[in-house]
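Renewal narrative, Specific Aim 1. Our central claim is that a sequence can be written position by position from structural information alone. The example that follows is taken directly from our test logs and has not been curated for this report. It begins with the structure tokens describing the chain, in the order in which they were read.
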């Protein structure tokens, strides 16, 4: 597994998608600053914006838009390159199963998600200092890092089933990114009750101790056991989807017959062998 992860990170050096992810993470705090600047005072999330406030706003923006979209886009791109570059068929004869290839890519994307979370924290702090925000301290940095890494891991778990399903056919990852955006955006509509506690994005925010009262109008803190259960179900679903994953056209191969070359499924090949005996 370690070899597969190192290979995926080596491939990332040749892909421009990493630049897209880096720019996207920069856009998150910039968008929050711009939104606070143009809002009326009564609508602002923070009357006086400081560095901890900017970190909080960035966490919300990452959870709602940036992380779901970027994680799905980058992860889907890594998988889709094997189809586009026509290298998947070569990897499958090493021999390496499609599930093992996919698992290596998903593991690499999980580590990359954590790195993107840490990068988002650094970018937010730098931008905040550049615009003159106050409130920087060691406690703020440690708390912000813990929340950002927890958010990155949680969002990755949320989009993991989408990534696996998108891997089954080439070109699906763009549609998966749109779906991930909708999953993040829809957390605005689940403000209380059971749906709020088990909705994946809300569950992640509950786990990292993020107060959504100001942003969604929710009442009270989320239920921690229900949030854990919701993410556990998503992990279980991901394991099941990974178990049934196979490359397009898997189970078919060219066989030589008296009538020429035909593509036969395993059951058809068995019948042919019996007939030839």
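The sequence written for that structure reads:
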């Amino acid at each position: 597994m370690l070899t597969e992860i190192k290979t995926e990170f080596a491939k990332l050096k040749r892909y421009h998608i990493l630049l897209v992810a880096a720019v996207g993470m920069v856009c998150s705090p910039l968008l929050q600053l711009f939104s606070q600047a143009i809002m009326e005072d009564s609508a602002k999330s923070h009357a006086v914006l400081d560095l901890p406030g900017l970190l909080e706003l960035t966490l919300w923006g990452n959870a709602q838009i940036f992380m779901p979209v970027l994680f799905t886009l980058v992860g889907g791109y890594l998988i889709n390159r094997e189809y586009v570059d026509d290298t998947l068929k070569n990897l499958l004869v090493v021999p390496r199963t499609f599930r093992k290839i996919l698992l290596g890519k998903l593991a690499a994307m999980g580590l990359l998600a954590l790195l993107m979370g840490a990068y988002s924290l650094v970018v937010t702090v730098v931008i905040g200092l550049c615009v003159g925000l106050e409130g920087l301290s060691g406690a703020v940095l440690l708390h912000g890092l813990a929340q950002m890494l927890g958010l990155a891991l949680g969002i990755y778990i949320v989009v993991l089933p989408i990534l696996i399903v998108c891997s089954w056919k080439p070109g699906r990852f763009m549609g998966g990114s749109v779906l991930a955006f909708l999953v993040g955006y829809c957390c605005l509509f689940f403000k209380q009750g059971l749906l709020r506690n088990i909705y994946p994005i809300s569950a992640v925010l509950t786990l990292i101790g993020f107060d959504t009262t100001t942003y969604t109008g929710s009442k009270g803190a989320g239920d921690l056991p229900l949030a854990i259960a919701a993410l556990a179900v998503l992990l279980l679903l991901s394991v099941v989807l990974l178990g049934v994953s196979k490359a397009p056209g898997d189970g078919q191969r060219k066989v030589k017959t008296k009538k020429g070359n035909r593509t036969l499924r395993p059951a058809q090949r068995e019948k042919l062998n019996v007939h030839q005996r």
